Amino acid sequence: MKKTLAALLICAMAASLTACSGGSGSPETTAAQGSQAPAASQDTQEAQAGQEEEAPGALHFQLAENQPDGNPITEGMYMFADLVKKYTDGTVIIDVYANAALCDEASSIDQVMAGTLDFSRVNTNSMSPVVDLFGAFGMPYLFSDTESKYKALDGEAGAYAFKELENYNMVGLDFYEAGSRNFYTTSKPITSVADLKGMKIRVQQTEVAISMVQALGAEATPMDYGEVFQGLQTGIVDGAENDFVSYYTSGHYEVAKNFTLDGHMAPPALVICSKKAWDQMSDSQKEGVMKASKEAAQWQRQAMQDYQEESRKECEAAGCTIIDVDVKEFQEAVNSVYDEYPQYKELVDLIRSVQ
User: Fold this and answer.
1) How far is CA 237 from CA 62, 79, 152, 164, 330, in A?
2) Which has the closest alpha carbon to 164: 208, 138, 142, 134?
3) For residues 142 and 348, is the Cβ–Cβ distance under 8 A?
4) What burial letters (b/e) apply to 82-109, b meaning 16+ CB within 10 Å?
5) What pLDDT, in 10s, does the model give residues 140-195?
């Protein structure tokens, strides 16, 4: 697995030279997308070769994925489809369309809601403009660590969020890992909240991200993702924020050598199914789909963690400094941001009750 992930990082790095950011409705990708996506991993190809035979009269569904082949999220979707076929004895077939071959993330949500698309893998940031409750998952310093994050998402908090999806003709299956965002800077390292005072930090164009950076004492500077490298290089901004994979594949590590492990945002991804498609399945088929999703999610979460670690090693080898901080200090500084979103309180409390 580690050799495969290292190879994928090299492919993603090359692809990032021609990559561009998505529209305003979709979040930045975990790994860069280019005109030519890396080939699917050998593990996935072998799994596909060993699939069960299709049963007569099988149900056929489509799943939209905006990441390219090789990304752990996409590989998780291929595994999900393979396991669905296995656990339903070939009576449910899911075809995965990677690299946004069907549509982008924002469009896929609308289509799943309308029942014109069967399944999609989306980020909770993409879901929040449609289902506001999912904006809670993008709140700053919400998750204390990965273990407690999935204890909440696989438990009462996740069930609470998925219940809301039913009001939009969607069924939520499982949460998937999409990385954790951290600050990185060109000159002055961030070792405490005080270091952020007066710094110009590039953020995504979301209200929560802007409010968070302002609460930390910095100047929030919204900027298209494709402009960030030049912004860092020329001093238009002093820093930015993203996960290790994007930090590496974008080349930002070349001009912003200080990476602070504060983990201010870790919005997960999830797989959604249209109610129309869900209602076509028998109880035993639904059970097989849920079993497949849970197994694929567990694999993908670890694969994404491995992918992040490989990226970190590459950045450290290139001379980047990784800085640990007292996250509690940062959490306390952004308490005012939570006051701006009282509608998220019940879900936030459920998440924090297990941390």
Assistant:
1) 42, 40, 35, 38, 21
2) 134
3) yes
4) bbbbbbbebbbbbebbbbbebbbbbbbb
5) 999 988 999 999 999 999 999 999 999 999 999 999 999 999 999 999 999 999 99
